Each structure stands twice: as C-alpha cells, then as structure tokens.
C-alpha cells in the first residue's frame, strides 16, 4: 500500500443565511467508483479503480481524521453567515492498494473525479453525504490527472496488439455461418514460475461467459464473437494463461462475425470492433 499527499483547490459560496446558531459540515466523495469490499482491511473505505488498484481518501477537520465519504464537522457559529471564497486549498491523503501485480510491470492510474461540498445546518445533526453534496457550494475536482505505478516486470506477452482482418464479406454468407473463423495465438513467457489469468472485455464492458463474448462493431446488427474454446475459465470469468506455476504458455482466441437476429436490416460497409485483454498474475 502506498500513500500520496496533496491538496485540491476549490471555490465556495454560501447561499444560505442563518440568523441564529449554525453548524458547518464538509464532505468528499469519489465519483463513479464503487466500494471495494474484497480488501481485508477492518478500517475499510476502499474504492475500486481497476483490476489492480483501489483507492482510499482521508482528510482532517477540527483535529479529527475522516475517511471519504464520511461527513466531517468543521465549525459552529451564530449570526448571519453569507460569503464566498476562491482559490482555497484543502489537504488530502490518498492511499493506493495494489491488489494484483501486472505482467508488464506498469499499473495505470486513470483520472479520478472527486466531489466536494460545504453545508450549513441549523442544528448539530450530521447530514448525509448526498445532502452535503447537493448544496449550492458543491464543486468537483480531478484529484489525479492520471499516471502510472511501476513494479518489476517478469513476463513478455506476444503479440502486444491482436488484429483480425475478415476482408470482404457478404451478408448472406455471414447469416449462413459460411465465413471462416480467424484464430490468433496469445503467447506468454516469464522469467520465473507464475500463475497468469486474462480477462477479455468488449468495448461496452461485457466479459467472457462460457468462454465467449460478443464484440459489437461500428455497423448496426453486426457483431464479432470472440471465444477461447480450449482455455480453462475461472469462477470470475477469467481464462488461465499459465497454471501450476508455469513459465510459458498461452491461449488461442477465435473470432467469428455474426448477425444480430433482432436487427432486420444490418448495416453495410467497413466496420471495426475493439476490446481489451487484461492480464493478471497472483
């Protein structure tokens, strides 16, 4: 687990005026990240970034440490409270949890969106995070513009990119299943014994089911069925590249164009389809 310290810059504006006693609250939330309960850490607070990485955020308010998305009490006061500010800095500590080691030695950190809110109440009851972020003072900040984490690389994958060209096809041949499938071999060679797994995902995020997944193309009603018929599939829909601490292995992938029977008039012309292969090791 690693830690990164920094600050976000925010602007704020109070659109509510209290004439009596008021309480001020602040809160943060990672946008579009789901909680990661797979990490055996009793303190919790982890959010899944990708297959390899999870993130946790902590901040200090009134001498107490809070874990995102926990709402923090900031201060209390009385009388009119209406103002604004700009270019303010707030310190954050981000913790990164490395769940799996990548094969190529590089872990990508995508941009991570963070929402921030300031909220005032007329009593000391702590508001929920959604309420804090619904106020007019809510702002958003990108806390990571993206980056990489380097770890030792022990394996070589060939080829780096898989491409398949079906040439010219006619719709009737595709409909009748007369288009020959294309096969491509993905090979792995490691300098030490490893257990390697691959997740295959389409551009819309679909994963292997029964060792098959459909890749949608740029033409309506035309798909590419990608399969690994001879591979072993794990319970979490990954396929085994190296098992029993092997050093060399791989998998043969098959690609077959097919038509969606629910589309009466499939598109014609050039088409493209894309997906990703994510390779992981224990």
UniProtKB/TrEMBL annotation:
Q: Which GO terms describe its biological process?
A: cell adhesion
A cellular component annotation (GO) from this entry: pilus
Signal sequence: where?
Answer: none
In Swiss-Prot or TrEMBL terms, this protein is called Fimbrial protein
Natural source organism = Salmonella abony
* Source taxonomy: Bacteria, Pseudomonadati, Pseudomonadota, Gammaproteobacteria, Enterobacterales
């Amino acid at each position: 687990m690693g830690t990164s310290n920094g600050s976000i810059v925010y602007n704020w504006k109070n659109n509510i005026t209290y004439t009596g006693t008021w309480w001020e609250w602040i809160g943060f939330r990672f946008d579009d990240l789901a909680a990661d309960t797979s990490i055996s850490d009793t303190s919790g607070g982890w959010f899944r970034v990708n297959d390899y990485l999870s993130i946790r955020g902590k901040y200090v308010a009134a001498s107490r440490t809070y874990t995102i998305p926990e709402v923090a009490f900031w201060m209390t006061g009385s009388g009119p409270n209406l103002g604004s500010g700009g270019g303010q800095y707030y310190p954050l500590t981000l913790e990164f949890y490395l769940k799996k080691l990548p094969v190529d030695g590089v872990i990508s950190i995508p941009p991570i969106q963070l929402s921030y809110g300031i909220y005032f109440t007329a009593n000391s009851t702590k508001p929920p995070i959604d309420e804090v972020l619904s106020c007019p003072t809510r702002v958003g900040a990108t806390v990571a513009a993206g980056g990489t984490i380097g770890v030792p690389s022990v394996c070589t994958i060939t080829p780096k990119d898989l491409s398949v060209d079906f040439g010219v096809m006619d719709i009737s041949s595709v409909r009748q299943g007369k288009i020959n499938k294309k096969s491509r071999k993905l090979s792995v060679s490691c300098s030490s014994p490893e257990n390697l797994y691959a997740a295959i995902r389409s551009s819309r995020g679909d994963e292997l089911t029964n060792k098959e997944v459909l890749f949608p193309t740029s033409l309506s009603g035309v798909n590419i069925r990608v399969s690994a018929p001879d591979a072993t599939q794990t319970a979490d829909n990954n396929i085994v590249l190296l098992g029993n601490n092997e050093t060399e292995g791989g998998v043969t992938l098959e690609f077959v164009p097919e038509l969606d029977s629910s589309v009466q008039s499939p598109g014609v012309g050039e088409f493209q389809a894309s997906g990703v292969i994510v390779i992981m090791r224990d």
